Request: fold
Amino acid sequence: MPLSLYNPFDDLIFDEHFCFLSGALTTEKMPVFPQWLMDKFKFGDERIEMMDKQKTYVYADLELPCSPEVKNAFDALDEKIQAAYKKDYEGMAALDELLIFQWTGRMLYGLLYYEMRYERDRLLRQGEEFALSTQLKQRFGNFHLMLQSIVESVSFVGRKPWSIVVFPLKYSADIFSYRDDAINLLFSFGVNGFGFVACLQDNGIIAEKQKELLEKMKGQVLHPIQFEELYARFHYSDYILQYNPEYKIERKDNAITIEAIPIEKKGSKPIFGFWDEDIFAQLLANYWSVYGIEREDILQFQKPPLSFLENPYSKDFIKPEAIDLPF
Reply:
């Protein structure tokens, strides 16, 4: 009998009595952000905004209802990630990308879960119905199915659904930097020692788009401002991606296999839309604000856009040690 798994996006079920991953009735909960991470970097008492900027939560209060089986699986995954973390870049780079996908996916799904609950409750108070577009239901449903690989017979064959890039990174102190886009399933994570950027449902096309730059980066320990620029490039590339990722999903022998279908140009429509330097500069300025760099500094009249990754004239990679900014 083909394996049939729980999908909360079919009926938009985000109830605290049902395990977020399996749908089983439960009274247990697990934190959205791993406890060891909140303890290590002391951000559990800080607040996080929802997308509409009207609602905030304390990080430590963000919890997902989960079955004992699911909690145990993520606890075991946390131990593997924490062990790799202690070995800096070499430890993280040696990890199977699936583990990074599952670990990152747990946090992104947790944020998505709270976005869904908040929007549902907000609309309910206004007497309106909570609904998602068919496209979003499919995207989030596929993501949820992929995340179930941590406890179910769900495996990946051929091309993977994600772009995950791990690289050495230098901070001057015990700093934890992360950014997320739960709706578009993007995440960046940086500490002193390593960083990674993850697009969890792009079928690898964004890493392919940035392949030339990623090759230039090899062997370099990135400056944090370069890390922010790299994520901005991934984020904006996802924004202008003009095709929805598709998957070949096979259910047989009580197991499910998922293969990402390569994103290819159809007709005259390019894979990526026009790269608007003005929009990208505004996005980048948001990430570079800690350095006092504004959009007007990035785009100056009769000058190429400012970059700390590539020399705008020669396109050579900019050596991190040549960047005279704090790290």
